[in-house]
Amino acid sequence: xxxxxxxxxxxxxxxxxxxxxxxxxxxxxxxxxxxxxxxxxxxxxxxxxxxxxxxxxxxxxxxxxxxxxxxxxxxxxxxxxxxxxxxxxxxxxxxxxxxxxxxxxxxxxxxxxxxxxxxxxxxxxxxxxxxxxxxxxxxxxxxxxxxxxx
Length: 150
Known about the structure:
There is one protein chain. This protein has one domain: Four Helix Bundle (Hemerythrin (Met), subunit A) (Up-down Bundle), CATH 1.20.120. The chain has three helices and no strands. It has helices at about 5-45, 50-85, 90-140. Helix 1 (about 5-45) packs antiparallel against helix 2 and helix 2 (about 50-85) runs antiparallel to helix 3.
């Protein structure tokens, strides 16, 4: 028979793990969601002529959104894991717990790849703008003043 003390410890650990899962969800969601929002803002504020790097930036955006979805799934898995532990079904709870940890590490990898994609896209945009400026200086259109630098 389970003593009152063991029940209190189980309830306290259950509450602590759920609180940790909620905090982790908030932190990751802010990170991935903030990245997605920043990329959307960047894409919206640039010219429509950003084709060389737009695909990479959209790839980074998709990675950020995928990270948000994975973290939402992991949060649900944390609740299921604790429910299984609470019901003394430790084997299934441990499997789901390990799966949640693997998904978190996977989401970090997806986020890192998204950052790499975004960096590649922004580099292409910057390079394209620099090339356009060099062409404009080297071959100005008629009646276009040559920009002077100080």
